[in-house]
Amino acid sequence: MTLPAALQTLRLPMIGSPLFIISNPELVIAQCKAGIVGSFPALNAREKDGEPIELERWLTRINEELDRHNQAHPDTPAAPYAVNQIVHRSNDRLERDVEICEKYKVPVWITSLGAQTWVNDAAHSAGGISLHDVINNRFAKKAIEKGADGLIAVAAGAGGHAGALSPLALIQEIRDWFDGPVYLSGAIARGDSLLAALAMGADGGYVGSAFIATEEANAVDRYKEMIVENSADDIVYSDLFTGVWGNYLKPSIKDAGMDPENLERSDPSNMNFGGDREKPKSWKEIWGSGQGIGAVEEILPTAKLVDRLEAEFNAAQNRLAATLGWHR
Length: 328
Description:
By secondary structure, the chain is of the alpha/beta class.
């Protein structure tokens, strides 16, 4: 299938996933200038009473900076950006944030934790496309029935809220019936993994954890260092912290005084997706991460990370071409 125009001219077939708290205008702008889709959750634009609407300030800045970049570099324009909407009853900002994104003509919309026709309609009225993240084939079908243009398949190994299915199984089942845009999330932190996602039938990768360890990311130094220092063995899968299953760094759980090997199940009253409800204090510094972080060896500027991913992607293509030539 032909991809929507907004996704056709990327330097790499990649979306930088919206990271709670971490994705800010600096990171998004750097990702887009580097040639991949940068994104942020609308709820990251936090506000205080009596102050201007922060989401509008963020969108104004991103639009203006990317426009300036494109005028100065017409031959290498920035990639489009995306805004993630949490479509869940705990998000009391949803309707207003959707109106703002419609006003500012956000080019790519990512929806999570619930598919709603009216949100997809708003994206389309703004000239944008909508992608919905799913953890299984049943949710994928519901999202497309409600008007999503494409899907983000969140497989086992993804950072933060993640599914439990193998990416091989999840992409296979979706591709049995859907030929629209599909991006794969789950332990993609090298260019090799990105190429593997394409080989499985995805149109690109959805990459988050590697961008935590970038200079532009809004993460504390210890969080970035923990991404660099740890690997897949240091990730635990739990639903305790938000009520939804996700992957988290074991050292951050230990620092909060808990045993990552013996976590309890979630308390539904503590479910929190970025709204006003407070998490227990001990959970404030429990950090999400995907299983691919073993590939992250240093904290880099975003542009340098994308350079690395591109070099690995190209090398993997050459290696695969040589292998296929040998077997023919």
